[in-house]
Amino acid sequence: MDKANPYLKRAKILEYVLKVVLGTAAIFIGLILPLTIFFVLYKESSLAIEHFGVLNFLTSTDWDPVAEKFGGLVPLVGTLIATFLATLIAAPISMGIAIFLVELSPNRLKSIFSTAIELLAAIPSIIYGMWGLFVIAPLFGEKVEPWLQQKLGGVPLIGKLFEGSPTGIDVLTTSLVLSIMIIPFMSSVVKDAFNMVPPIMKESAYSLGATKWEVIKQVMIPITASGIAGGLILSVGRALGETMAVTFLAGNVNQIPKSLFDPFTTITVALANQFTEADTDIYLSSLYFLALILFFMSFIILYLSKFMLLQIEKKWKV
Amino acid sequence: MSKNNKIKRQIENYVFLTLSFLSAGFGLFFLFWILGDLLINGFKYINLDLFTHDPVPPGMEGGGLKHAFIGHIIITFLGTVIGTPIGILAGIYFAEYGRNSKLASILRNIVDIMVSNPSIVIGAVVYAILVKPVGHFMGIAGGVALALLMIPVIVITTDEMMKLVPKETREAAYALGAQPWQVSFQIVLKAAKVGVLTGVILGVARISGETAPLLFTAFNNSFTTLDVTKPMASLTVTVFQYAMGPYDEWHRQAWAASFILTFGVLIASITARYLIQKKRT
């Protein structure tokens, strides 16, 4: 090739410039943005970190804006409880939905059903919150929770979970609405994983006389185990950071809930309710510290989920 | 194998398949419950005043959400205008230039993680970067926060859709003497343009339902404003304020706004899914 050719030279320069522009965009979103988030949150929370210390903040139940004493244990535990309960409800149901979509639904209706389930993820979180507040909370506060209390309140051990006065603004309703929101994420990942199972593996099991459930249990689930784990972890990550729905239903009371009918708070609830009201530097800084903890937790968890999903893709993706 | 065992296996089979059926029913039940409530409670309060009037003082009847509709459109538009070019450019990089690079695939995985990043965290970060130095809430800060939420969605879809373009198409272009940038922009991007558009629709659908990042950035305003350097109302933040408030009129308007918002977002998502499915088959 002729190096002196001006056309080719121009093309080379253009090529280079484009590569730099595209690469900059990619580095911005994949590297600079997450680092910026981390450093901004760290810088803004440094006052609280210096003042209270990391370990102290994480183990203290104080949250007193007047005395300027702050600790993150209560919202952190609230976040973990709501996430755990929501995942507990969502996981088996998501598995059931994925099995239904892959194995039971008639072929022609498959895409309609899977669209419908995925629409649950498209409904904005504020809608879940408002609907939860106006529909679920009264229903649970007046009917479901008194009934549960009557039936299960006297049972030893678990009876304690149903103590207190049911209002519908509590751990139970929050976790239920949260679980509906994360179901589509887990079920769609598990569905995709099931679809990667080579048909020949299923067919050989059927030819040995296995029932459909046995094929699912002994062939599909073991093969897609890391995909299922990835979907489960993804839904945990989603639940951790969910804000608006939880804000409507949790009640924003700074206490570690002892019963399913207690109001409580989470990191996101504390942020949404108090961020714009924080009138002192240490107050705002403590809220930023909570945001940093949330970002850190969800990043690690989502990374773990991604890692699990890459395992199964590497193995089975065609 | 004894006959008893066979019956046991059959029963187990039916029990679990029924449970699977019920799970799907559970999901659909809640979907229709929510949509039904929105339809019943929201649709009847939609009237012209809702779109053409600013709010009246709290507790009084009447008034509308003009300020929130206009603010919502402006903020979403800002987010889309800022986010779309960056998202598409980064998506092209991952699909075309970063194919075999280890670094690019690490970055690509981080972008995947950023899709699920808690949106309230983005709001807090934009507050520290834009709102705090300026000293007051701004519509444009809301636009930036939404753009940052939207970019990962567009990057992922652009990347996936461009990777669906057959290798042969690229090779044919190279064989005709095309430069790499010509292949990327004039051949592959053109072939994948519906897919890329789908990514933008998905991104818009995602951000137009966001509330948390707007609470600390655009905040709220009781009046219509076109000035993006002032606090600006949005539908979602207004729904939050109205639903939490004590007035019946507020609740009615919150239902109506939620109805419009939800069905707008659902139509956008269904369109996007339809376009993707058409592309894949």
What would your notes on this structure say?
The complex is a heterodimer of chains A (318) and B (281). Chain A is mostly helical and 318 residues long. Chain A has a single domain, classed as MetI-like fold. Helices cover 76% and strands 1% of the residues of chain A. In chain A, strand 1 and strand 2 form a beta hairpin. Chain A is flat, with a radius of gyration of 25 Å. Chain A starts with 5 loop residues before the first helix and ends with a helix. The model of chain A has no long low-confidence stretch (mean pLDDT 93). The mean pLDDT of chain B is 93. Chain B has a single domain, classed as MetI-like fold (Orthogonal Bundle), CATH 1.10.3720.10. The longest helix of chain B has 40 residues, at 3-42. Chain B is an all-alpha fold and 281 residues long. Helices cover 77% and strands 0% of the residues of chain B. The chains are: A mainly alpha (318), B mainly alpha (281). The interface between A and B is large, with 92 and 88 residues.
Summarize the structure.
The complex is a heterodimer of chains A (318) and B (281). Chain A is mostly helical.
Summarize the SSE layout with pairings.
The complex is a heterodimer of chains A (318) and B (281).
Chain A (H helix, E strand, L loop, with lengths): L5 H47 L1 H6 L3 E2 L4 E2 L2 H32 L5 H13 L2 H28 L18 H26 L2 H9 L4 H12 L1 H17 L2 H7 L16 H8 L6 H36 L2
Antiparallel strand pairs in A: 1-2
Helix pairs in contact in A: 1-12, 3-6, 3-9, 3-11, 4-6, 5-6, 5-10, 6-9, 6-10, 7-8, 9-12, 10-11, 11-12
Chain B lengths: L2 H40 L5 H5 L13 H32 L4 H14 L3 H16 L4 H25 L3 H9 L4 H12 L1 H16 L3 H4 L19 H10 L3 H33 L1
Helix pairs in contact in B: 1-12, 3-6, 3-9, 3-11, 4-6, 5-6, 6-9, 7-8, 9-12, 11-12
Distinctive features:
heterodimer, A: 318 residues, mainly alpha, MetI-like fold, two-stranded antiparallel sheet, 2 strands, flat, B: 281 residues, 77% helix
